[in-house]
């Protein structure tokens, strides 16, 4: 076991982690621990753009953007946080441009902007051009630009280090951050990183669904580490299904395709979104569009022999526009479906995309251990966190924004904290939990296989905790996940080696997914209303009287070691906007 | 050794209904110094829908037959750059290569990319590759006061380096280059592509410095214009053209 000592340790090297690292490296001795090489992070898969009211192509302002974000999140958004997001968006985009990001340009040479779902002029009057973009690889360009600037700043990376545990020490009755424990994939060695400040920026957990736009590696490792150490998870029942995933595969086709004029059509060729969202049509918020697609499918207007998908139609757009603005997604259609988007519509279905919930933080990125108390030295930013700027449903282009605004804030806050704080003593035998976990899996002779449990988990999540939910489906999911967690205790791996043992790591990742799926299903079962991405057929209306509040889930362990989930609630911060019925 | 699996369940997402499965043999170059000093080929016979990706086949083998099979992957749709490998003798991304397109009638060979040290099975040491990238100053360099708003750039100036911004650092190009195979000191196509991305960016002011770096004996002049890199690039970047443009800029000092 090796022990390292840094002022600040950042877990994850996607957009939020690297944006934080650029700030914290300037201010404190920083290490970034990442299970992937930084440029492999899933920020790179984001396509359509990053929202900011630059008003480069038409009138716009940050207040309109704040309103759209709050409305998009079905009023579960903390409005103080949304205001920060929208205000700081402008500098966040300009920062990236100055770092070198090659945005598309207007004829006047400024950053070009395009339409995106849920973004409107003057509180819902009409779609507005707010998304700053680089073709349909904006996330790729953000990831590359941030990595380039990390190289420039000399950020220290530990690549292919899996952080498996968070170390908290109690000092005078207060839980404080002591560091993290990581597993080095190349050697199998376990490393303890003592740190004054730790930032979780480890991304989402969308791999507990089968049809998902998420990378194989998005397994919620950060959320699970915090959860096991007794920290709460907020609003986990809110998971976004992106309307346009490639049929059956789930590969993302950007909303920018509809921003450029693409239209969703059912088997009759009808532009069905006109029925569900007369003003914003195909550019309504994602939860609305995904539900509309499934309504079409359920009512027999789906396409194909099994009627299980609809079409994204780009055929009326000039090929030059597709080549210039949407080169990657048209290439995906050609590669994976053998379809030419110039002439043929693309079969799509909603795909699991983004966790609105996560580790609760305040607007400085400080992690909360209950509704108000911060854990000194612990920060989170990006998809792993819940600020909450996305509420019950995130708007497209607000996640690339989130990672930049709150990544930067967390990076500065953590480094400033580290500059004045002392190291907290490591707990006795700090790596024990990880050593025990790794050794148990490596030496297990159990008969259960990772692949079977993972498949069963994804099947039940797709079937029961998807776009439409009921008491019955959620109960079924809770029961099945509990059974799978029992089976997981008897799981074994074939690779017993130390070198690049991805078999072992996949087993650990599955354990994380199981725990987070359980929190998601239990939180969803208790929310007896429909709001944003959480739609209950048995409670189809939003219920502001009983549920205008964030879910806070806690892991409880009794004296016999039995685990349970306790749910509590946290008030929503409301400033300017009173909840209204949401129409697009 | 041949391991067979006769069940067709547990396939990837592209499968449903009466998918026309085929039996395909994957001949994979295995290496694990914890087990044996030498690398060896191993055959796996699987039933799979030919419209699936080579990555799906590798997952099927790993998840259902041999958990020790080791490879890198993440996004599974050609954007993260993790899974460059040599498939039927040609560098490709496993997640962008459909089985039907690589003649599954015959055994499909899969091996690690060349020119970088193999650490286990299909996993190579990427450090020398990333070091070459870092050595070309792959970041925007400017002088003077920053503008309040964005730096202006015309659409034409932006277009000038568009192609080379697509690079995902997968190393398919560099590890397809015969010069790189023979001499690992050569910067390789990917590093030059990323230098190109900044040399031809109208906002950047360090073009001369990057050109000097690439004027080195291990720089652009080692390129023998074999076009392997262009053929290998899964992003369709005209790599050889970019290298030629850097060479021309070195001669004319205009960029």
UniProtKB/TrEMBL annotation, chain A:
Cofactor: FAD
Coiled-coil positions: 467-494
Pathway the protein acts in: Carbohydrate metabolism; tricarboxylic acid cycle; fumarate from succinate (bacterial route): step 1/1
EC number: 1.3.5.1
Bilayer topology: Peripheral membrane protein
Subcellular location: Membrane
Residue stretches making up the FAD-dependent oxidoreductase 2 FAD-binding domain: 7-400
Highest taxon of source: Bacteria
Listed SUPFAM superfamilies: FAD/NAD(P)-binding domain, Succinate dehydrogenase/fumarate reductase flavoprotein C-terminal domain, Succinate dehydrogenase/fumarate reductase flavoprotein, catalytic domain
Keywords attached to this entry: Coiled coil, Electron transport, FAD, Flavoprotein, Membrane, Oxidoreductase, Transport, Tricarboxylic acid cycle
PANTHER family (alphabetical): SUCCINATE DEHYDROGENASE 2 FLAVOPROTEIN SUBUNIT, SUCCINATE DEHYDROGENASE [UBIQUINONE] FLAVOPROTEIN SUBUNIT, MITOCHONDRIAL
NCBIfam families noted in UniProt: sdhA_forward (TIGR01816), sdhA_frdA_Gneg (TIGR01812)
Family statement drawn from the similarity comment of this UniProt entry: Belongs to the FAD-dependent oxidoreductase 2 family. FRD/SDH subfamily.
The protein, known as: Succinate dehydrogenase flavoprotein subunit
């Amino acid at each position: 076991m090796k022990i390292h000592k840094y002022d600040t340790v950042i877990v994850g090297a996607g957009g939020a982690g690297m944006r934080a690292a650029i700030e914290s490296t300037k201010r404190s001795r920083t290490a970034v621990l990442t299970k992937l090489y930084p440029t492999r992070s899933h920020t790179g898969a984001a396509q359509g753009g990053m929202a900011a009211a630059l008003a480069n192509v038409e009138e716009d302002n940050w207040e309109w953007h704040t309103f759209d974000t709050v409305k998009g999140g079905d009023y579960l958004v903390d409005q103080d946080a949304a205001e920060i997001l929208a205000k700081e968006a402008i500098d966040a985009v300009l920062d990236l441009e100055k770092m070198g990001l090659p945005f598309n340009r207007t004829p006047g040479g400024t950053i070009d902007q395009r339409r995106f779902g849920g973004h409107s002029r003057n509180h819902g009057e009409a779609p507005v051009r707010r998304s700053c973009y680089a073709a349909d690889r904006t996330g790729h360009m953000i990831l590359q630009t941030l990595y380039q600037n990390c190289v420039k700043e000399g950020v220290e990376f530990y690549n292919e280090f899996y952080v498996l545990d968070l170390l908290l020490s109690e000092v005078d009755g207060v839980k404080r951050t002591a560091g993290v424990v990581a597993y080095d994939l190349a050697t199998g060695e376990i490393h303890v990183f003592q740190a004054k400040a730790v930032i979780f920026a480890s991304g989402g957990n969308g791999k507990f669904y089968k049809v998902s736009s998420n990378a194989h590696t998005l397994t919620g490792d950060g959320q699970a580490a915090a959860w096991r150490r007794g920290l709460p998870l907020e609003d986990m029942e809110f998971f976004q299904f992106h309307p346009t995933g490639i049929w059956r595969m789930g590969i993302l086709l950007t909303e920018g395709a509809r921003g450029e004029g693409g239209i969703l059509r059912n088997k009759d060729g009808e532009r069905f979104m006109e029925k569900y969202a007369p003003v914003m049509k195909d550019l309504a918020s994602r939860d609305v569009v995904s539900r509309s697609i499934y309504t079409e499918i359920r009512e027999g207007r789906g396409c194909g022999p099994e009627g299980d998908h609809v079409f994204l139609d780009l055929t009326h757009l000039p090929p030059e526009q597709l080549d210039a603005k949407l080169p990657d997604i048209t290439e995906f259609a050609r590669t994976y479906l053998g379809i030419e988007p110039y002439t043929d519509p693309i079969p799509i279905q909603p795909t699991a995309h983004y966790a609105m919930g996560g580790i609760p933080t305040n607007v400085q990125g400080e992690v909360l251990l209950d509704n108000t108390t911060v854990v000194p030295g612990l920060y989170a930013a990006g998809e792993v966190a819940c600020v909450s700027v996305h509420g019950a449903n995130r708007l497209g282009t607000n996640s690339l924004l989130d990672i930049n605004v709150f990544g930067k804030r967390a990076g500065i806050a953590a480094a400033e904290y580290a500059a004045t704080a002392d190291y907290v003593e490591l707990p006795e035998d700090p790596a024990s939990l990880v050593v025990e976990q790794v050794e148990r899996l490596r030496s297990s002779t159990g008969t259960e296989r990772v692949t079977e449990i993972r498949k069963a988990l994804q099947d039940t999540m797709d079937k029961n905790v998807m776009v439409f939910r009921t008491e019955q489906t959620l109960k079924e999911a809770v029961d099945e996940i509990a059974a799978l967690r029992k089976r997981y205790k008897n799981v074994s791996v074939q690779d017993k080696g130390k070198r690049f043992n991805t078999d072992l790591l996949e087993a650990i990742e599955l354990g994380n997914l199981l725990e987070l799926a359980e929190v998601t299903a239990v939180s969803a079962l208790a929310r007896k209303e429909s709001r944003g991405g959480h739609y209950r057929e048995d409670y189809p209306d939003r219920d502001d009287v009983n549920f205008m509040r964030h879910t806070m889930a806690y892991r409880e362990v009794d004296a016999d070691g039995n685990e349970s989930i306790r749910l509590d609630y946290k008030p929503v911060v409301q400033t300017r906007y009173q909840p209204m019925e949401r129409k697009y | 050794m041949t391991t067979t699996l006769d069940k067709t369940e547990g396939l990837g997402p592209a499968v449903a209904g009466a998918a026309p499965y085929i039996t395909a043999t994957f001949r994979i170059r295995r290496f694990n110094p914890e087990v044996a000093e030498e690398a060896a080929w191993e055959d796996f016979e699987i039933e799979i829908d030919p419209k699936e990706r080579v990555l799906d086949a590798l997952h099927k083998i790993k998840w259902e037959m041999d958990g020790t099979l080791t490879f890198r992957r993440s996004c599974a749709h050609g954007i993260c750059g993790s899974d460059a490998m040599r498939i039927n003798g040609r560098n490709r991304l496993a997640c962008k290569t459909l089985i039907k397109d690589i003649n599954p009638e015959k055994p499909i060979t899969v091996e690690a990319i060349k020119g970088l040290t193999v650490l286990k099975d299909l996993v190579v040491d990427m450090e020398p590759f990333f070091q070459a990238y870092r050595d070309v100053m792959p970041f925007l360099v400017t002088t003077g006061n920053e503008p309040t708003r964005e730096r202006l750039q015309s659409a034409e100036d932006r277009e000038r380096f568009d192609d080379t911004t697509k690079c995902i650092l997968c190393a398919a190009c560099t590890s397809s280059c015969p010069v790189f195979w023979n001499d690992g000191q050569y910067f390789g196509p990917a590093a030059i592509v990323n230098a190109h991305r900044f040399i031809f960016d109208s906002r950047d002011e360090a073009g001369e410095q990057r050109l000097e770096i690439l004027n080195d004996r291990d720089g652009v002049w080692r390129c023998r214009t074999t076009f392997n890199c262009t053929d290998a690039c899964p992003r369709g970047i005209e790599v050889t053209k970019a290298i030629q443009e850097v060479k021309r800029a070195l001669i004319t000092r205009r960029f």
